[in-house]
Amino acid sequence: MEVENSATPLSLEKNFIETALPAIAEAMARSMSDSRINIIQGDGGTPFKFVLLELLDILRDRMGGLQEAE
Fold first, then answer.
1. For residue 46, what are the CA distances in angstroms to 27, 43, 50, 53?
2. Count helices and strands in the chain by DSSP H and E runs
3. What is the pTM of this model?
C-alpha cells in the first residue's frame, strides 16, 4: 500500500516505458514478422510511416477509452 501511495506519474511513466513498451514491441514484431503491406494510394509517405501512423491511431483510440473510464 505504501508503494502504491508513493507512485508518481513520472515513476509510473518510467515503469511503463521500461517494462510495457518493450513487451508491446516484441509482441508486435512477432505478430508482424510475416506481414506484407500494400499501399494502393498514399500521400508520398513510406510504408514505415504508414504503419507508424496506423499504430498511433490505434494507441490513441485505446488511450481515449482509458481516459473516459477515469
1. 23, 9, 6, 11
2. 4, 0
3. 0.40
Hunting for cell 511503463 — which residue is that? Answer: 16
DSSP assignment, residue 8? Answer: -
Type of residue numbered 36: R
35 phi/psi in degrees, rounded to 5: -75, 150
Give tens-digit pLDDT for 20-67: 888 888 888 887 777 776 666 666 677 778 788 888 888 888 887 666
Going from the C-alpha of 4 to that of each of 8, 11, 26, 39, 67, the distances in angstroms are 9, 11, 28, 46, 20
pLDDT of residue 41: 64
For the chain, report the end-to-end CA distance as a whole number of angstroms: 21
